[in-house]
Design brief:
disordered C terminus, single chain, alpha+beta, 5 helices, disordered N terminus, six-stranded antiparallel beta barrel, four-stranded antiparallel β-sheet, elongated
Length: about 475
């Protein structure tokens, strides 16, 4: 029973054994090792070396950058100026037009032929100087005729007056009717009227003769001649003979906003004479100095401005009619105020402020209240006292409490108006006498110049940099 196969037993048959792989030998076979394996090891070793070199370079560069940042953040070179005390003019700027006080177009007042011209184009003439002559002969003849008629009517009047005396005597003797006397009285009055009319005609003809001789009505400069001699001129001619413009004195009409009017009126009503300075179109060349003459009597509602007139002697005749000029009206002068260069003024979150340098060479953002300026310096009405030091160059790199070095000697605001130019400097291990501005040092760059192993401003480096 035990020898019979079970239901799950394999069927009997011949058993074949599968071939087993030979066990690997503990020793390599005789002969050279495979070449691909050795070549792969060399490539792996080269890759490790390259990675190590790159890591060293990057680490060394980062260490230098860290040193540069550490030195830069430690101290920052800046340019400074000293707060000074001085006077600041309070001026109002305006646009103006040169307007002559008088411009006359000389026209003929009678008709006639122009027979002579007594001026040269561009000539300066005085009032009463001869300008032109119109043929006077027709008016001379008319004068003689009027004088003859006057003499005739005067004789008739004389005869009527004699008859009147006779009639008065006869009426007193009852020799003639009283009506005859009354008629004679009115006849004498009639003749007197005729004589008066004749006298007027004589005066008209005399005046025409005066008009034939044309003279200058004002003193000024003669323009271009509009009519040549020989032409027949009439009173209806639009262009006239010539235009004369008064150039001395000369006025400038300019406008100011109505908001500035109270300040000007206060000074004018107080008896002050306000100075006005005229500059050219660019506002850089001074032309002449004058005074405020008058203020218009109303404000222009369309522009919200008021017109003012300033007078100038115009001795050199540099102010030309209809010329466009810039006017600086001196309204007041602030005395003994703190002055700083405009470059020191910063604007940011605190408002208007300056970086003030403390005795320990750190800076603080000092809020200030500004007054007027003159284009170079600005008045500080609150926040600074004369004698203090403020930053005028390099403020863009500063923050509250930053430590700074003075890149140059302090300069006064009124004398210099701003920080003086930076003197040339050199960097250590760099070019001798290297340039501070756009100059070169060694192993590092500065602001507008290069220092040594660090950053500097205008040729001043950090960490062994030359100055």
């Amino acid at each position: 029973m035990d020898d019979q196969p079970g239901p799950f037993a394999p069927a009997p048959g011949p058993v074949e054994s599968e071939p087993r792989p030979a066990a690997p030998s503990s020793r390599p076979a005789d002969g050279p090792p495979p070449q691909p394996r050795r070549r792969g090891l060399w490539w792996l070793l080269a890759l490790v070396i390259v990675v190590a070199v790159v890591g060293y370079i990057v680490t060394h560069a980062n260490r230098k950058v860290t040193q540069v940042g550490r030195f830069t953040s430690t101290t920052i070179p800046v340019g400074t100026a000293t707060v000074t005390k001085g006077d600041m003019p309070v001026t109002l700027s305006a646009l103006g037009t040169v307007t002559p006080l008088a411009t006359v177009t000389v026209k003929t007042q009678i008709n006639g032929q122009l027979i002579g011209v007594g001026f040269t184009e561009g000539q300066m003439v005085k009032k009463g100087d001869f300008l032109a002559q119109i043929d006077p002969r027709p008016y001379q003849n008319a004068l003689e005729q009027a004088q003859g008629q006057l003499a005739k009517d005067q004789a008739l009047l004389k005869n009527a007056e004699i008859d009147l005396v006779r009639y008065r005597t006869l009426v007193a003797q009852n020799s003639i009717a009283k009506q005859t006397l009354d008629t004679q009285i009115y006849l004498v009055a009639q003749d007197r009227g005729v004589v008066q009319s004749d006298q007027a005609q004589v005066d008209v003809q005399k005046l025409n003769l005066v008009y034939c001789h044309i003279v200058s009505p004002i003193s000024g400069r003669v323009g271009l001649r509009q009519v040549d001699p020989g032409n027949y001129v009439q009173t209806s001619d639009a262009n006239g003979l010539v235009v004369i413009t008064q150039v001395q004195p000369m006025s400038v009409i300019f406008t100011l906003p109505e908001d500035n009017l109270p300040e000007v009126l206060k000074r004018v009503h107080g008896g002050a004479t306000l100075q006005a300075v005229a500059y050219d179109r660019t506002g850089t060349i001074k032309i002449d100095t004058g005074t405020l003459a008058t203020i218009d009597n109303e404000i222009d509602t369309s522009t919200g401005t008021v017109k003012l007139r300033a007078l100038f002697n115009n001795k050199d005749q540099n102010l030309f009619p209809n010329q466009f000029v810039n006017i600086q009206l001196l309204v007041n002068t602030m005395r003994n105020v703190a002055l700083v260069p405009e470059a020191a003024i910063q604007r940011g979150a605190p408002g208007t402020f300056v970086y003030a340098v403390k005795p320990d060479h750190t800076v603080t953002a000092q809020p200030v209240t500004l007054g007027p300026d003159d284009g170079t310096n600005v008045a500080v009405t609150k926040g600074l006292t004369p004698g203090g030091v403020v930053v005028v160059d390099g403020a863009d790199r500063l923050k509250e409490g930053a430590k700074v070095t003075i890149a140059q000697p302090s300069s006064g605001a009124p004398a210099a108006g701003a920080a003086k130019p930076v003197a040339p400097g050199n960097g250590a291990n760099g070019k001798p006498h290297g340039r501070g501005s756009n100059g070169q040092g060694s192993n590092g760059q500065g602001s507008n110049g290069q220092g040594s192993n660090g950053q500097g401003a205008h040729g001043r480096g950090q960490h062994r940099s030359g100055q």
